[in-house]
């Protein structure tokens, strides 16, 4: 028969907190379930009311399937059953059930039953305006308290009233029950941080994305639009793995030893941080104990040496830290070099399609920010975050070992609260920071736009309107700025409150033990010094956390560039192009830049060695696309392109392009000298060869008229030169390359007639006895071509020589007639204009006659 005895066991009372070097079981098992049940029912009820009033039932397709969620439910149910089983076992084994055991079991069952209900509510309903991800604060707090309560049992390690001794079967069963609770509550808490059973995004965002997916399947834009709302800590392990290759210098033993030495210095810093407060304590004790001057001076010298090694104060680096920073410079430089070189090489390997769509400013900023972010991440994580966490763990172990478990508990609770609240508040205030940046950009853009359109503002007397718009933008920015600064102040005050509370609790306890004679005065000094020393880096933890967030964001944009795939790749074991005669052959080629819009449709033609083939046709017909396909900027979607019988998609790109020279329509030069721009055709060419190429391109004499000759700087994109001069530099560059196949893409379309004639003469010299393909806009420039292909709507509409096509009277003949009429019209307009000018210059003859008769 089971009877309920007194509330506490014999020889104990609920008013007794500390009994035989441990917490009283009666007090402990009364306090813990009371707190848990209060949290579960009070916060849980509010939570359920909010979900009932402001929530909505989630559609099943938005609820993720997760085995971890099943584990959460199973663990919660297991704990509930375990508490019932514990009461049954206690009653059957002793026959008498103390009141506190009954209260502990019943309250725990109620608390965990309510927690299971909350877990199911969150699984099925969602707050419409919720902007957060993860479990509610009520559930996380409940699991955190439950796990902390099981950790609190360690304080009673030496108490005979607890189960740690395992002296009999009852203690062994109690220990087994505690071990199951410890593992289960710990798993629930840490799995709960991931929230596996809940959507990774706010519910309304999922609905909006789903609707946009139905309307238009633009998956890429949707993903790009939601990344800002994702946590920067998602995929942390993957991001760290990306960092490791840049931290560990492969193939460089010296730098590898340097990394190991820096990590060793980091360990030495942790040891120094422990001994500085200890020697400070020894100085105080020796001063109060009346130790000899020799002993005291030796202790002081060691203490000062340790402080020299550690650093003077908050933010002041010591000898070890400065030495580590100095040595780490070489590793940082290695990281910078490797990242930038790899990314630069990768960008050059990307396709023309990607480069045509890129934003150069964004790419350069991504490279700069990404490189610096990797260094920042390595510095913050390796030399700030990990050492801070290591110092906390060391301090907890030290206080438990040399003081007692209460001090370790105080440090553990304070540090846990400090780190947890810092992370939560920092994540919460991130939205204010983003909004402030948005408003700041908005204000600056309005100011710049208004100033750039200064004349328009004056034309319409809109000065007051512009000033008003700018003021409104500033006011919006200041509202966001106030929220950002207020949230920062709230974070700082929260941190100060936790630090002050922990320091107060520890100092009072330490002072109490000093008055009881259990501690010395130096121990009180040691505690205060150690805690303050520990809090100093923690004050920067929020800053480090925020900087790591920003670094992750910057790093992500850079690694996205690394993830861009090459569109045109060499085939596996692709060989070099074996050039023989230079025959170019198109066989039923199909190509499109985007799906559903074909640019080339079943194009077939041959260019035999030494021939010149011209491509003509209206804009957008596919002429320039043919040139790009031969150079293999893109791969064809159907058919093949062969040179001397070899499919160019099966040969190495480098060897293919080595035999092809291109003179583009829009020549872009490097911001360098004329000599270096010509030499770019063959980097190893001598100065004499450069001049010979310039002579062949008919630009040598012009270069000599410049003050600096071949050393003349051409400016950004060659803008200091005229169009004709740039074209001749491009021709000279191609001549220096000495290619066997020449591609001319409307090389003279934007030039005046005389310059065009000069360049045509230069091109004739270059193309002599070479396989040449010309894209022409002015038909007069390709009259002598061996074959002319008329491209219309992606197909070859006509082919033949100039005379043959004129006889046909088709598209080419129409184009020729239109250009001839345009030229005749221009010529007549020019002659009429000259006649008018000459008439104005002639003196009126009639007036002269009248004057003479009057005379």
TrEMBL record:
Record SUPFAM superfamilies: ABC transporter transmembrane region, P-loop containing nucleoside triphosphate hydrolases
Keyword Repeat: no
Record's keyword terms, sorted: ATP-binding, Cell membrane, Disulfide bond, Endoplasmic reticulum, Endosome, Golgi apparatus, Lysosome, Membrane, Mitochondrion, Mitochondrion outer membrane, Nucleotide-binding, Secreted, Translocase, Transmembrane, Transmembrane helix, Transport
Chain positions covered by the region annotation Disordered: 817-855
The ABC transporter domain, residue ranges: 584-818
Protein's cellular compartments: Cell membrane; Early endosome membrane; Endoplasmic reticulum membrane; Endosome membrane
One cellular-component annotation, GO: early endosome membrane
EC category name: translocase
Annotated protein name in UniProt: ATP-binding cassette sub-family B member 6
